[in-house]
Inverse folding.
């Protein structure tokens, strides 16, 4: 068995003297180390931001939302409801009625708001909103023949409202009837019971009322605008989506948590992989150094190569010597870079060494290390190192023994 690995190590790491070749090899290993470490840290930070944004969005967005594909309001049969509830991944099923309405208060400016009618008990299981109540209580039930309403803290401050104030809502359908039938528009009065504050990444704040009150407001009878589902594991949303499609058939739009905020999530993924492509340039520069250093080794060791061929080493064996050199450089660089990148990411994740502006949602750069990303980085860098050895290896295999010995 030919000891190509031993010869490759001797050519790379000879301790006799420090030469330009050994310097170039050191630069190559350093470049790969820095490149892979930076890639792991940067992609882990992107993963961390994605996880933070996803967490904020899922504090309000459902794991799956079912809506009508044909109109704003739809009805679902009890059998279909039961089939959905029996899916093992479905934890909470929360129907709602939603629409825009004119928000009117005596002595204040009117404005259009997004009204969402919910079942309080089911909604509380879906969204962790109870801790977000800033004033009063989240009570939308009917008391003293008047239903309750919950508004966002910003709306409360903007309209200078107080708990117990009477609020009037007028839907677009009500205004349309008033105009077409020349009648007084039908308004609905609510009692302000509380306010909440949710840190929302996208979409405007909503006004909450009971689902039956919303049905009367929007004249939807027993209809629904949508059904929100909470799953035992949101990573199974795509699987559950396909199961729901089989149950419900056509006529429904089924959206996962990713679909609901797809433009935002897509941009974050794009930024992540663009950063990966840019930072890979550092590794590519280091790889070019590998080509140079290995080519110089071929020139310097031309006589040795000729002797090896005379001793019975084939072209394939000669190529293997130099390819293994590229592999060793890649293994050392990727090993050091992977360790350094993982260590820096872990330190940031645990101790939050690099802080963010106090105005941001979190106090330090978030980090989430994903094994698949680390594998992609290390594999990509290693493949580039091996490919860099192709030209020097081919050049070495073309050496003629007689010529190599004659001119030495």
């Amino acid at each position: 068995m030919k000891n190509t690995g031993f010869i490759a190590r001797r050519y790379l790491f000879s301790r006799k003297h420090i030469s330009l070749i050994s310097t170039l090899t050191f630069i190559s290993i350093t470049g790969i180390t820095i490149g892979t470490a930076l890639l792991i840290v940067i992609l882990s930070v992107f993963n961390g931001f994605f996880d933070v944004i996803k967490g904020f969005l899922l504090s309000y967005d459902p794991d799956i939302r079912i809506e009508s594909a044909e109109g704003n309001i739809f009805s679902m049969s009890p059998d279909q409801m039961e089939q959905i509830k029996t899916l093992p991944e479905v934890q909470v099923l929360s129907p709602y009625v939603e629409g825009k309405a004119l928000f009117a208060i005596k002595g204040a400016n009117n404005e259009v708001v997004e009204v969402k009618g919910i079942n309080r008990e089911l909604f509380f299981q879906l969204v962790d909103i109870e801790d977000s109540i800033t004033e009063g209580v989240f009570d939308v039930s009917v008391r003293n023949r008047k239903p309750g309403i919950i508004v966002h803290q910003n709306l409360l401050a903007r309209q200078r409202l107080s708990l117990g104030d009477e609020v009037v809502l007028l839907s677009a359908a009500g205004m349309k009837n008033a105009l077409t039938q020349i009648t007084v528009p039908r308004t609905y009065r609510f009692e302000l019971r509380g306010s909440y504050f949710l840190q929302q990444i996208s979409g405007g704040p909503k006004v909450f009322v009971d689902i039956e009150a919303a049905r009367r407001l929007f004249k939807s009878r027993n209809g629904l605008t949508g059904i929100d589902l909470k799953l035992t594991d949101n990573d199974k949303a795509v699987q559950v989506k396909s199961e729901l499609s089989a149950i419900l058939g056509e006529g429904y739009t089924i959206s996962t948590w990713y679909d609901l905020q797809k433009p935002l999530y897509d941009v974050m993924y794009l930024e992540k992989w663009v950063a990966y492509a840019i930072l890979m340039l550092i590794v590519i520069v280091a790889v070019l150094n590998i080509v140079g250093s290995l080519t110089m080794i071929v020139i310097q060791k031309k006589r040795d190569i000729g002797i090896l061929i005379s001793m019975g080493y084939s072209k394939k064996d000669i190529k293997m010597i130099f390819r293994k050199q590229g592999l060793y450089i890649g293994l050392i660089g990727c090993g050091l870079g992977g360790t350094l990148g993982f260590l820096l990411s872990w330190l940031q994740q645990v101790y939050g060494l690099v802080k963010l502006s106090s105005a941001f949602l979190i106090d330090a750069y978030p980090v989430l290390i994903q094994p698949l990303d680390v594998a992609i980085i290390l594999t990509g860098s290693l493949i580039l190192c091996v490919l860099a050895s192709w030209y020097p290896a081919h050049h070495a295999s073309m050496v003629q023994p007689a010529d190599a010995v004659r001119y030495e």
